[in-house]
Amino acid sequence: MKQVNLKEQVKKLFEEHLEIHQQRKTKERFIILDEIYSRDDHFDAEGLYAALKSKKHQISRATVYNTLELLVECELVTKHQFGNNLARFEKSFGYRQHDHLICIDCNKVLEFCDPRIHQISTRMGELLHFNIAHHSLILYGKCNGCEVKEQLKGSR
Amino acid sequence: MKQVNLKEQVKKLFEEHLEIHQQRKTKERFIILDEIYSRDDHFDAEGLYAALKSKKHQISRATVYNTLELLVECELVTKHQFGNNLARFEKSFGYRQHDHLICIDCNKVLEFCDPRIHQISTRMGELLHFNIAHHSLILYGKCNGCEVKEQLKGSR
DNA sequence: GTGCATGCAAATCCTTTGCAGTGAT
DNA sequence: ATCACTGCAAAGGATTTGCATGCAC
Lengths: 156, 156
Fold this sequence. Notes:
- The structure is a homodimer.
- Chain A is α+β, with helices and mostly antiparallel strands.
- In chain A, the strands form two sheets. Chain A has a three-stranded antiparallel β-sheet with strand order 1-3-2.
- Chain A has two domains: 3-91, Winged helix-like DNA-binding domain superfamily/Winged helix DNA-binding domain (Arc Repressor Mutant, subunit A, Orthogonal Bundle), CATH 1.10.10; 99-154, Dna Ligase, domain 1 (2-Layer Sandwich), CATH 3.30.1490.
- Chain A has helices spanning 2-20, 27-38, 45-54, 61-73, 115-128, 144-154; strands at residues 43-44, 77-81, 87-91, 99-103, 109-112, 130-143.
- The longest helix of chain A is centred in the first third of the chain and has 19 residues, at 2-20.
- In chain A, helix 1 (2-20) packs antiparallel against helix 2 (27-38) and helix 3 (45-54) packs across helix 4 (61-73).
- The first copy, chain A, is built from six helices and six strands; from the N terminus they run H-H-E-H-H-E-E-E-E-H-E-H.
- Chain A is globular, with a radius of gyration of 19 Å.
- Chain A binds chain B through residues 81, 83, 85-87, 101, 103-104, 110, 112, 114, 116-117, 119-121, 123-125, 127-144, 147, and chain B through 81, 83, 85-87, 101, 103-104, 110, 112, 114, 116-117, 119-121, 123-125, 127-144, 147.
- Strand 6 (130-143) of chain A pairs antiparallel with strand 6 of chain B, so a sheet runs across the interface.
- The structure holds a DNA duplex.
């Protein structure tokens, strides 16, 4: 039942955020939030739109973009730019802060944590007089599978 | 005369790269390389195109994009995605590897170095069986100036 | 009822592509 | 002389915007 509780929690948080900012609690917004917290990947706006459509929800692209922005603002969703110019998103409530590792061949995304990143962030903020809000660390490389595939191709 | 030597060095490196890959040494390519190594900022493709135009060089956008890609391939230029979906570039030969700190209000870019990032990169590569090629670490925050400005606005 | 949010389509921004002409090899 | 590279303009993909309609308040 952990899933259910998580969804209820984020829904409550979203409602609070909307109330505080005097924004409306439309059904579209909650359908989108629910869909995002049903997924477990790094999706893009178009993919989310398609998923909603396939579930017979008539929600426009504009609303998808609009709601994603709202959810990023209230920190229930995180936005990433993984190299290509296509924004990717992931749910962010209830998960430990983490960073990403991406395969430059197959685009597979892995996650990892390292406390040193937070240390670096804090230290550099102090040193350079910046009030750090968040960060993005992406390691680009080739995953084992793609590495092997390439070697096979090379030796042909 | 350090500048001149640097420009000569990168020109030589670019020529070698072109020869090895059997690509042509066109004057446009060298004009673009020279312009990039005359700058000292994080520019975008359009800005580079505009700079060339203002210097009376008739170089098309297509060639600018094409050459940037070439220069990224031979590692004379680095490409970044700083949040928004607009690629930014900087010269990368002769400079220590570094990461970036960006003001989310005024877009100011600062640079910093921390050896721990390389350690993290190596460690995670081993742990997750990735052959890491490069990384991107961006710290987002507010610079002192913007921070002060905001406080003034708040207390009005 | 008021006016914010939606849906739709058009507009915009950045980047890539197709193609005819040019110039490096 | 060949054919990779260029310039141009059109296409493309992601995102934003304008406006009429709908619905949360």
